[in-house]
Amino acid sequence: MIDELRALAIFAETVKQGSFRSAALSLQLSPSVVSYQVSGLEKRLGVALLYRSTRKLSLTNEGEKLYQHAQAMLTAAQTGLSEINQNHQQLKGKLTISLPTALIKAPITQYLAQFSKQFPKVTLNVQYKDERSDLIYEGIDLAVRAGYLPSSNLKSRRLGVIKRLMVCSSSYFGAKAAPKHIRDLADWNWISLAMLPHNRNVFNERGETFQIKYQSNVTVNSIEAMTELCLQGLGVATPPDYLVKDYIEQQKMVHLFPKWQVEDIPLYAVWPNNVPQQGLVKCLLDYIARSAF
Question: What pTM, to 2 d.p., does this model score?
Answer without folding.
Answer: 0.61
